[in-house]
Design brief:
Chain B: One of its GO terms (cellular component) is mitochondrion. Chain B: This is Glutamyl-tRNA(Gln) amidotransferase subunit A, mitochondrial. Chain B: One of its GO terms (molecular function) is glutaminyl-tRNA synthase (glutamine-hydrolyzing) activity. The structure holds two protein chains of two kinds. Chain A has 15 helices and 16 strands. Chain A folds into three domains: about 200 residues, no CATH class; about 110 residues, no CATH class; about 60 residues, Arc Repressor Mutant, subunit A, CATH 1.10.10. Chain A starts with about 25 loop residues before the first strand and ends with a helix. In chain A, about 35% of the residues lie in helices and about 20% in strands. In chain A, strands 2-6-7-10-1-11-12-13-14 form a nine-stranded mixed sheet. In chain A, strands 5-4-15 form a three-stranded antiparallel sheet, with no helix packed on it. Chain A has a two-stranded antiparallel sheet with strand order 3-16. In chain A, a hairpin with a 4-residue loop joins strand 13 and strand 14. Chain A is of the alpha+beta class. Chain B is of the alpha/beta class. Chain B has two domains: about 325 residues, Alpha-Beta Complex (Amidase signature (AS) enzymes); about 60 residues, no CATH class. Chain B has an eleven-stranded mixed sheet, with helices on both faces. In chain B, helix 9 links the parallel strand 7 and strand 8. Classes of the chains: A alpha+beta, B alpha/beta.
Chain lengths: ~525, ~525
């Protein structure tokens, strides 16, 4: 197991302070995450994987567990698990094993799930994540959680109950889809930390392309193991909270559960080892009908799959005669890992001099880094000037409309061109806002065309500006008098009036200078 | 014609002495005449006639597919056959028609073989008598044979001898001359045991050499498709067709040896044959022991070195098998819940009630018993004591074999069964589990180690029933094993079965063609 950097942080939220000499109870949170592997076919069969296919349209004979069918391991799923393990600093087991986990359920047609209980493909990793704290969320705190293991396993089908509750329908499209189960050690203390860890993991998986990571579509499913204890004492009895389908709900569910357990203990009760479901409507966790806890899964080695071997071209090459197209090479997987989110953030701060919290926004928003880098590449404007437009204006409007970065009506080159007009002093910053709003309409006109057609260019004619300034001075004798008595603030009003007359097309610095001269 | 070997029939087809359709019809007639053996669960007459006709055309065009083209075959009813009922002799799968062929079935069909039907077995292959299936017990054709009847055997209408099991239907089909080849399955001896009792060659190939895809499993880690024929040469021909890596079975191995022609004669002088001393087991019949010694002498006289070897852990094999088998059975049978296929109870008050009723009604007592004990062995609190221990012992058993072979022994000679076939009335005096533990004692350790083994009939007992011996070889030495088996076959000249259904025509052909061409060196 790798070494662990674990920082205890202040800023423990939502835990009410009680004055007492006894150390306070704190929450202890571990996560079990099921990540659906982004693969075109299932873990052990060649059925297609698709989110919204008609029920039971993606079911092979094996998925339906017809007698006599056998599992055939999908190499793509192994590669995904190896790559994910490497990205999380795990040790990849050169040899791992599959096991059967037995339980009867209508959407588990074989009566068992093939998983990796004894010897999983990856062990002992670390996930470093950060969250923003402090006023205005301006401070970045970095923490880490240990990854116990990553195991490959099959997903189950889905049971659909009719409205009367008397009938159950089974959809096996999901049955046999490859999952990576990531088990995290209980290194977190509150919902916010857990949510931040999950968001970071989501981002890593999406960057790797090993999981699409959409929680609401069930591609990423998170169960939380929650307990409370006093630091230095043994861990308390834990509950498992299920049925959480967003990072926000995860934070709420965990914090509710920590608070609930503390309340139970304060009243002198004891926490039961049970499975609870999060009810997002009430924000509470409620006990699930108990049968899981008593299950004995009767694990057994899967006899139809030989040990899963992965190789390394340098240190552990595949044996002679191995089909080179079939062997999974750890080093080859390592070479295929793209720039990970943490490295990307550091690079953005370093290369462009932007603030760390801005690097989070850029990296956490799918496609926004590329957008920003595109703008910077195509524009002469300072990156630090561009970042404000990208985050405040582009992202702000996208969020408002519920659009993705890829759907932005303002492409990077248009924003870059607009920034150049601004940089070259051809438009004022207020005119630039107008240009941006025009661009957002997506008419296909370039910034230069908009400036020309709407006459938004800076008034460059010196005589004309002097003329307008003079007319403002002439028509506002009261204000001019006040300025002359030393109240310089009123000058701003005159500047604004000039801007209004020029429809924002005058350079405010220049106007101010002319007005100062005229009123002195 | 029916009593020929595959090689001889194929020659007859080529020479136009008979057509695949004519032979197919003879076989179908023989099946009808031998209904009382209960060898077949399903007879696929229409399909067979069609396949035979296609083979006719190929021979007429002078373009047969290979050595199995037009050969009538039977398949144990635990191999999936596309659109043909596959029951495992269980109420659970009555009426179940798989949508695909097992790889071994497909390979035979691709070679032009003519599938006559699906053969009877113990339910889900759990048994050693072919007496515990949902379609009733199988009768051993030797119960009706002249030598047995002449030597005071019971009237077959009141009692008969069993075929052994669990592939008893396949053995009865080949022995009663309704089929030239039958697929069995071998998990603890289920191919070799009935082959031995029915006077056939029964081959259990090396684990991984032949695909299990489409074979409804008993114990995945020991299951191997088995081959039953009337000659060693035929078994070798069929193995040549069936072996090979299968993308649908990840436990199959790549094996370069494609050409599987057996040499017609070999020199056994360089051979070292091991006689495992532990196989002098309690209950071994005097006659079987005598055959074992006699054949060892035959080998020795021919110049082979016959040495006593020890397999010390073999004695634990059966009890160890009991644990591992039950555990895998409990797991493999979990899928039969009545939801997707097979029997479904009318009980529908809840899903759990449906499961319980379906499984109670669908499985017989033997299957239910193994499921219960298997689940017990797999419980978290028992797993280490039972399953893990049994796996450790399994490793020791395999190591025993490996040590003997690495010490220079080429193959082992052992009995296949304790005695000749017992009568049905006698056999059912003990329960299935007791009988399996007794009957599989010589065959089962081989499955633990994944080794190839073949049983060859040697002589008739005093009761006029076959006595067979087994050869066991190192992993992947199937060909060498068959070579020696073929040599033995020629030395012992085991007599052909004579049945009341043999027509005069068959008799005549048998005399002219069958016997004349086979080994005759009396020993």
């Amino acid at each position: 197991m790798g070494f662990v950097v674990y920082a205890f942080q202040s800023g423990q939220p939502q835990i009410k302070k009680k004055s007492s000499a006894v150390p306070q109870l704190i929450g202890v949170v571990g996560l079990e995450i099921h990540a659906q592997i982004n693969s075109s076919t299932k873990l052990f069969s060649s059925s297609q994987v698709g989110f919204s296919a008609p029920p039971n349209s993606q079911v092979s004979f094996f998925d339906a567990s017809l007698p006599g069918t056998l599992p055939v391991l999908n190499r793509r799923c192994v590669e995904a698990a190896v790559m994910t393990g490497l990205a999380l600093d795990c040790t990849i087991n050169r040899k791992s094993l599959f096991d059967r986990k037995h339980y009867f359920y209508a959407d588990l047609p074989a009566g068992y799930q093939i998983t990796q209980q004894r010897l999983p493909i990856a062990v002992g990793g670390t996930l470093r994540y950060s969250h923003l704290i402090g006023r205005k969320q301006g401070e970045v705190v970095t923490k880490s959680v240990r990854i116990k293991q990553i195991q490959l396993e099959q997903d189950s089908g889905k049971s659909l109950h009719d409205e009367s509750g008397s009938q159950t329908f089974i959809d096996l499209n999901r049955a046999g889809v490859g999952l990576m189960e990531l088990v995290m050690e209980p290194d977190m203390q509150c919902g916010e930390e857990a949510a931040a860890a999950v968001r970071e993991l989501q981002l890593i998986l999406q960057t790797l392309g090993t999981c699409q990571g959409n929680m609401s579509e069930g591609q990423l499913r998170v169960d939380a193991n929650v307990s409370v204890h006093r630091p230095g004492e043994p861990l308390g009895v834990r509950t498992e909270v299920k049925n959480i389908n967003s990072a926000r709900f995860l934070a709420r569910a965990i914090d509710y559960e920590i608070e609930r357990q503390m309340e139970v203990l304060r009243r002198g009760g004891s926490v039961l080892n049970e499975t609870r479901a999060f009810d997002f409507k009430s924000g509470q966790t409620i006990p699930m009908r108990e049968k899981e806890g008593l299950q004995d899964y009767r694990f057994m080695p899967e006899p139809n799959l030989p040990p899963l071997m992965v190789y390394d071209s340098e240190t552990a090459p595949p044996p002679a005669g191995t089909d080179p197209g079939q062997a999974v090479l750890i080093d080859a997987m390592r070479d295929r890992i793209p720039e990970l989110p943490s490295a990307r953030r550091a690079r953005l701060v370093d290369a462009f001099g932007i603030r760390p919290e801005h690097s989070y926004t850029l990296v956490n928003e799918d496609g926004l880094t590329d957008y920003f880098e595109g703008v910077v590449r195509m524009s002469r404007a300072e990156p630090r000037k561009a970042i404000g437009w990208v985050i405040k204006d582009v992202l702000g409007l996208l969020k408002q409309r519920g659009l993705k970065v890829s759907q932005s009506p303002v492409p990077p080159h248009a924003l870059a061109e607009m920034l150049d007009l601004l940089e070259d002093g051809r438009v004022s910053s207020s005119a630039a806002k107008t240009v941006f709003q025009e661009l957002w309409k997506g008419t296909g006109r370039s910034p230069a065309q908009i400036v020309e057609q709407q006459d938004l260019g800076l008034v460059d004619d010196s005589t004309e500006i002097h003329r307008i300034c003079q007319s403002v001075i002439d028509s506002h004798p009261e204000e001019v008098r006040t300025i002359r008595t030393g109240n310089r603030k009123v000058l701003n009003k005159l500047v604004g009036l000039v801007q209004k007359q020029t429809k924002g097309r005058s350079d405010p610095v220049r106007v101010r200078a002319i007005l100062e001269e005229g009123t002195s | 014609m029916l009593r020929l070997t595959i090689r001889e029939v194929s020659q007859a087809f080529r020479e136009g002495r008979i057509s695949p359709s004519e032979l197919c019809q003879k076989c179908l007639n023989r099946i009808k005449k031998t209904r009382n053996l209960n060898a077949y669960i399903t007879v696929t007459e229409e399909q067979a006639v069609e396949q035979a006709r296609a083979a006719d055309e190929r021979f007429q065009r002078g373009a047969p597919k290979g050595p199995l083209d037009g050969i009538p075959i039977a398949v144990k009813d635990n191999f999936c056959t596309e659109n043909t009922e596959t029951t495992c002799a269980s109420k659970m799968l009555k009426g179940y028609r798989p949508p695909f062929n097992a790889t071994v079935v497909q390979k035979l069909l691709d070679q032009g073989a003519v599938l006559l039907g699906k053969t009877n077995l113990d339910e889900f292959a759990m048994g050693s008598g072919s007496t515990d299936g949902a379609f009733g017990p199988v009768r051993n054709p030797w119960s009706y044979s002249a030598p047995y009847r002449d030597r005071g055997g019971a009237d077959p209408d009141s009692d008969w001898v069993i075929t052994g099991g669990s592939s008893g239907g396949s053995a009865a089909a080949v022995a009663s001359l309704s089929s030239f080849l039958a697929l069995g399955s071998d998990t603890g001896g289920s191919t070799r045991n009935p082959a031995a009792h029915c006077g056939l060659v029964g081959l259990k190939p090396t684990y991984g050499l032949v695909s299990r895809h489409g074979f409804i499993p008993l114990v995945n880690s020991m299951d191997v498709p088995g081959i039953m024929t009337r000659s060693v040469h035929d078994a070798a021909t069929v193995l040549g067709v069936l072996q090979g890596q299968d993308a649908k079975d990840s436990t199959t191995i790549r094996h370069p040896e494609e050409n599987f022609h057996l040499p017609d004669d070999i020199d056994v002088r360089d051979l070292r044959v091991g006689i495992p001393k532990e196989y002098h087991a309690p209950g071994l019949s005097r006659e079987t022991l005598a055959q074992w010694s006699r054949v060892a002498d035959v080998l020795e006289r021919a110049g082979a070195r016959v040495v006593t070897v020890s397999l010390p852990h073999t004695q634990h094999s059966i009890v160890c098998y009991h644990v591992l088998c039950a555990a895998e059975v409990a797991s493999n049978m979990a899928r039969f819940d009545g939801l997707q296929y097979g029997h479904r109870s009318v009980e529908d008050s809840s899903t759990d009630a449906l499961y319980a009723a379906t499984r109670h009604e669908g499985f017989n007592q033997v299957v239910r018993g193994r499921i219960l004990s298997g689940n017990y062995f797999l419980l978290r609190r028992n797993y280490q004591q039972y399953f893990v221990k049994a796996q450790q012992v399994r490793r020791l058993i395999a190591d025993d074999f490996a040590q003997v072979f690495s010490a220079g022994v080429d193959l082992l000679l052992t009995p296949t069964t304790l005695s000749d076939a017992p009568s049905h009335a006698h056999f059912i005096q003990e329960d299935n589990r007791t009988r399996s533990m007794q009957e599989d004692v010589f065959t089962q350790p081989v499955n633990m180690a994944g080794l190839p083994a073949v049983t060859v009939p040697m002589a008739l007992s005093g009761r006029g029933l076959p006595i067979s011996l087994q050869l066991i070889g190192p992993a992947l030495q199937d060909r060498k094993l068959l070579t020696v088996a073929g040599w033995l076959e020629r030395q012992v000249a085991f007599p052909q079965i004579r049945l009341p259904w043999d027509t005069e025509e068959d008799e005549e052909e048998g005399c002219n063609l069958g016997v004349a061409e086979r080994g005759q060196t009396a020993v």
